[in-house]
């Protein structure tokens, strides 16, 4: 299976989970040169795209990036028009080596993605993937919960036993900021210095990791915790997971969980 097959399978699942309606959401995935060689000539630059921010730390790397205005539901059947494989040519330039056959270009969130890749690679040299999507219950939760990252994390951890196991570093939360611009990209990348997941209030979530399965599973787990929260937050609670139980769980799984939230 090629990297195109793997990515389009995940994009299709994201759409079928109702997390990427219309042209909502975007993905960027670091590829090896061997993976690119399997699909196209990596030295054949079809078009170039200029950006104002510094990509020096990514020069020479290849990425699959979803196209702007493209629908995830179309990626599985028509990847060459909906996706592009890009090479970072210099500190301000992406070169297209495959895809966007209909004249498309990278998602408007590409600068945010690339800034997040820069920060996550500093934390984890095996990092490869950024997914942005619009899970319903996570968005709902930002309407009814305060946006303090520690409070948000604590409530998600307490919704189900697996939460602290899957995202022990917690969840960062940003207030509403205009999407597609420099401000939200800088703010998101800054949070990625400490977190793999960043919630955009009233919008969605950015999640990162090493593999497609890992990141998809991270989104699934956070969204399920948010769904439980939305189903019970306004009801009388008779019992729940306590701080002491979370600490016991963290010790049992040898988790390096974020301190200062439950202890």
> What is the name of the CATH architecture of the largest domain?
3-Layer(aba) Sandwich
**What is the strand content?**
15-25%
Strand order of the largest sheet: 2-5-4-3-1-6-9-8-7
Rg calculated over all Cα atoms:
19 Å
What is the CATH homologous superfamily assignment of the largest domain? Class II aldolase/adducin N-terminal domain
Give the end-to-end Cα distance, rounded to a whole number of Å: 45 Å
Which fold name corresponds to the CATH topology of the largest domain?
A: L-fuculose-1-phosphate Aldolase
Structural write-up:
With 263 residues, the chain is of the alpha+beta class. It folds into two domains: 1-108, L-fuculose-1-phosphate Aldolase, CATH 3.40.225; 109-263, Class II aldolase/adducin N-terminal domain (L-fuculose-1-phosphate Aldolase). It is 38% helix and 18% strand. It contains ten helices and nine strands. A nine-stranded mixed beta sheet has the order 2-5-4-3-1-6-9-8-7, sandwiched between helices. The protein is elongated. The model has no long low-confidence stretch (mean pLDDT 96).
Helix/strand layout:
Blueprint: H1 3-16, E1 26-31, H2 33-37, E2 47-50, E3 62-66, H3 79-82, E4 83-90, E5 93-99, H4 110-123, E6 129-133, H5 136-144, H6 149-157, H7 162-166, E7 172-174, H8 182-191, E8 197-200, E9 204-209, H9 212-232, H10 243-252
Parallel strand pairs: 7-8
Antiparallel strand pairs: 1-3, 1-6, 2-5, 3-4, 4-5, 6-9, 8-9
Helix pairs in contact: 4-8, 5-9
């Amino acid at each position: 299976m090629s990297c195109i097959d793997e990515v389009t399978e995940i994009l299709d699942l994201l759409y079928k989970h109702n997390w990427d309606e219309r042209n909502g959401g975007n993905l960027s995935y670091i590829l090896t040169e061997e993976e690119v060689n399997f699909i196209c000539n990596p030295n054949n630059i079809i078009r170039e795209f200029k950006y104002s921010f510094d990509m020096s730390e990514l020069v020479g790397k290849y990425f699959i990036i979803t196209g702007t205005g493209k629908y995830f539901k179309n990626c599985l059947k028509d990847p060459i028009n909906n996706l592009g494989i890009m090479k970072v040519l210099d500190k301000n330039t992406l070169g297209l080596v495959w895809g966007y056959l209909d004249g498309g270009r990278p998602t408007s969130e590409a600068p945010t993605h690339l800034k997040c890749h820069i920060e996550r690679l500093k934390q984890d040299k095996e990092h490869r993937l950024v997914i942005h999507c619009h899970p319903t219950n996570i968005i709902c939760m930002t309407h009814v919960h305060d946006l303090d990252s520690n409070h948000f994390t604590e409530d998600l951890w307490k919704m189900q036993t697996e939460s602290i196991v899957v995202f022990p570093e917690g969840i960062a939360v940003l207030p509403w900021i205009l999407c597609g611009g420099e401000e939200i990209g800088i703010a998101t990348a800054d949070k990625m210095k400490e977190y793999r997941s960043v919630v955009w209030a009233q919008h969605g979530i950015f999640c990162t990791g090493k593999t497609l399965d890992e990141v998809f599973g991270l989104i699934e787990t956070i969204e399920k915790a948010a769904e439980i929260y939305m189903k019970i937050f306004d009801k009388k609670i008779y019992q729940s997971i306590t701080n002491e139980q979370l600490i016991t769980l963290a010790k049992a799984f040898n988790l390096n969980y974020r301190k200062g939230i439950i202890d």
